[in-house]
Amino acid sequence: MVVIWILFLALLREPPCPGRAAAVPEPPGGAPRARRDAGGRGGVYEHLGGAPRRRKLYCATKYHLQIHPSGRINGTLEKNSAFSILEITAVDVGIVAIKGLFSGRYLAMNKRGRLYASESYNSECEFVERIHELGYNTYASRLYRTVPSRAGTKRKASAERLWYVSINGKGRPRRGFKTRRTQKSSLFLPRVLDNKDHEMESYNSECEFVERIHELGYNTYASRLYRTVPSRAGTKRKASAERLWYVSINGKGRPRRGFKTRRTQKSSLFLPRVLDNKDHEMVRLFHSSARFRESLLRAPSKNQRRRRGH
């Protein structure tokens, strides 16, 4: 019996074979599951991609965050402001891009910690979204932060600090390196749009179209809501199949009524084209020049309509 115990202890003390590694169990799917990143008590959204969330960001200082076409960022006390309607899109786990619906610009923070509205999407437009107590969120720059001071310097060593989107008590943006996660000015409550906001959007079910790709790269766009329904059995008219109503422009540049259109007609086929330099210049002028924007939105005169062939 003593010999058996000695052999058992010897086996326990024997080191593992160097040519063999212990197998680590993997989760289903092969790839290890990403850990939930949580800073302090708050967590992060783990959704990826998908449709943008349309929200208003209500700061704890009682201001709604606004993104202006001129590139300015500020807060407003107005409950229903067009420039406070935002599209929040997840671009990575816990990372979002915030775009003004009517300004067409992205919220961004530069290397000096200043908030601005960018015409195009870039790395300065990415923010870390975290959930905190009472439903408030914080939005910290993914690119910029205060790095710890090096050892040996006269200044006291400090921990790494994130730079947050922040609106002070006067509705003005604060510079990122002056912000803290616990400050009221850095806390935002994502608010769902109300009826007045939806009226400003001017969006309804009639604005939705079914996009189909056809031969030679052409697309068709059919109304999602309306179509020609088959005639009932027993009527004098010949039974017909259901037909979609397509967006269609005739040979004179005029729109055709949906129930007169067919999928195979040239007037219903559209080729999506990439914008050229002149198009991008027009977009830039529309967002930066109020005079140019008003001239485009103004109703054309009779002479202008005559020149255009209307």
Q: Can you describe this structure?
A:
There is one protein chain. With 310 residues, the chain is of the alpha+beta class. The protein folds into three domains: 43-148 and 158-200, Trefoil (Acidic Fibroblast Growth Factor, subunit A) (Trefoil); 205-231 and 240-268, Trefoil (Acidic Fibroblast Growth Factor, subunit A); 277-308, no CATH class. Helix content is 15%, strand content 26%. The chain has five helices and 15 strands. The protein has helices spanning 2-13, 195-201, 277-288, 290-297, 302-308; strands at 43-44, 53-59, 64-67, 73-76, 86-92, 95-100, 106-109, 115-118, 126-131, 137-146, 161-164, 188-192, 209-213, 219-228, 243-246. Strands 1, 2, 5, 6, 9, 10, 11 and 12 form an eight-stranded antiparallel β-sheet that branches. β3 and β4 form a beta hairpin. α3 crosses α4 (290-297). The radius of gyration is 30 Å and the shape is extended. It starts with a helix and ends with a helix.
Produce a short descriptive summary:
This protein is α+β, with helices and mostly antiparallel strands. The chain is built from 5 helices and 15 strands.
Task: Calculate Rg over CA atoms.
Answer: 30 Å
Please indicate the count of domains. Answer: 3
Q: Gap between N and C termini, in Å?
A: 108 Å
Relative helix content: 10-25%
* Backbone structural class: alpha+beta
For the sheet with most strands, the description reads: 8 strands, antiparallel
Characterize the overall form: extended
